[in-house]
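As promised in the previous annual report, we have extended the structural survey to additional targets. Below is the entry for Putative ovule protein.
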Amino acid sequence: MDYPRHYEGCPLLSMEMINHFLRSSESWLSLGQQNVLLLHCEWGGWPVLAFMLSALLIYRRHFNGEQKTLDMIYKQGPHELLHLMQPLNPIPSQLRYLQYVARRNLNTQWPPLDRALTLDCIIIRMIPNFDGKGGCRPIFRIYGQDPLIVSDRSPKKFVLHTKRKSNVVR
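The corresponding structure token record, generated without further manual editing, is:
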């Protein structure tokens, strides 16, 4: 199976791809004890590999507890790879997706359906003082599938710009 590489520095896997990997792996491993899985990751792919191994262990019920399983896999990895993580911390998203895998028996719909989400607000608790006047102008980048183009499942970048208001202080 070929899986996607990084997209803008972020490893992305769809629920369909995760489901395909888990079912294919389960099917292959259940055919006999002589069957093994050989997984390889390219440079920078360790977070995705760690997630997929954790998901497989939870899916096959060899481990329970998403955080515990993910921690165990990360501890097994080469220590030099742990220092080369990408700029974004993937672990919170990985834990959320591992919870989806762990709850698969509670939900009749697996994998969960894709649905459009609306971002209502972003709360920044501590505002950095970049200009010395107590303010900053954040730019948010959101990646996902375009809900208007169903045939194209590739991730797109949705750029959100903050509205420019001069001298706004709260």
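Residues 15-102 form one domain. Residues 15-30 form the longest helix (16 residues). These points will be discussed at the next consortium meeting with the crystallography subgroup.
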